[in-house]
Amino acid sequence: MAAAATKPGERPPAPPQFSTSTVSPAEADFQRVMALDDTAHEEIDKWIKDNGAFAKKGAGLADAVLSLKIEQRLEPVKRAYEDFLQRHPRHARGQLAFGSFLNDIGEEADARKRWEKALELDPTNPAAFNNLANSYGQTGPVAKAFELYSKAIELNPRQAIYYHNLGSVIVLHRKEAAAHYRITEQQALRKALELYRLAEKFDPANFQLATDIAQVYYGIQPPAHEAAITAWLRAQSLARDDQEREATHLHLARVKAAAGKLNEARIHLNSVTNAALSSVKSRLARELVDQALPLSAKDDDRRLNLPPTQKP
């Protein structure tokens, strides 16, 4: 129901800007590596965006060619991290940042080793706990992810992403969560909802978080249609583009129809004009013809299989 079990590896925050006379040589080296990393990713983001625009005109690079170009651009950044950590192997933030870099390029096993090293060097760093929890949430054991996210929250209880991540892993692994916390699966979903609400306090404008909150209601029993409608309306108010906004109309159509508000459901469907959402719209419209929109007996079937939305 949530969009993802985990989020990308968290990088260490940028250090405050000091004059060169007050920055240690190791910290100055680290800042240079981070700057290389940031510059490379800014360039790559532009390549991807530009290539998408060119592709629409039939002039974009093939995926394999673009992937090779990206790999070549990141190679010197990887070498810079390796050189830095060879000279400063006990730099915890360097290990953490390199782990996030490796995770981004698909080297998850090596990323986990770097995060474990970062945690060994600095067991008070919540980002290291969060990143390791992300890794365990993907590969297991999931119980380890529950524990590590909880530790991250304990160390920094004002970081929204830690609550969000833990809630998402609980939703996607509710059976394991029920066993871990010794509660029922329905109680696990409600626990995830509580965690999402805590995240919302610290990140109230996050559209993805708002949609994850609304998605939980597809699994809540007995159905809480009014709460679900309220949640989807809030997500709609935070949509960052037309496709995200129209996707919320589809969810509102399904929930309102399930609540017996068929005319309102049709209004929501008629608000959807994006071609990428047409197949889902058509399916829901066919179901409305029968004056009902029955929900599947399986929680996961209650989800709408919407295409991924584009980030701004």
Describe this structure in words.
With 312 residues, the chain is mainly alpha-helical. The chain has a domain at 228-312. 68% of the residues lie in helices and 0% in strands. It is built from 14 helices and no strands. α3 (92-104) runs antiparallel to α4 and α4 (108-121) packs antiparallel against α5 (126-139).
Q: What is the β-strand count? A: 0
- Oligomer type: single chain
Would you tell me the structural class of the helices and strands?
A: mainly alpha
Terminal residue distance: 23 Å
In short:
This protein has helices at residues 25-56, 63-87, 92-104, 108-121, 126-139, 142-155, 160-172, 174-181, 185-202, 207-216, 225-238, 242-258, 262-270, 278-289. The chain is mostly helical and 312 residues long.
What are the salient characteristics of this protein?
312 residues, 68% helix, 0% strand, disordered N terminus, disordered C terminus
Strand-helix topology:
Layout: H1 25-56, H2 63-87, H3 92-104, H4 108-121, H5 126-139, H6 142-155, H7 160-172, H8 174-181, H9 185-202, H10 207-216, H11 225-238, H12 242-258, H13 262-270, H14 278-289
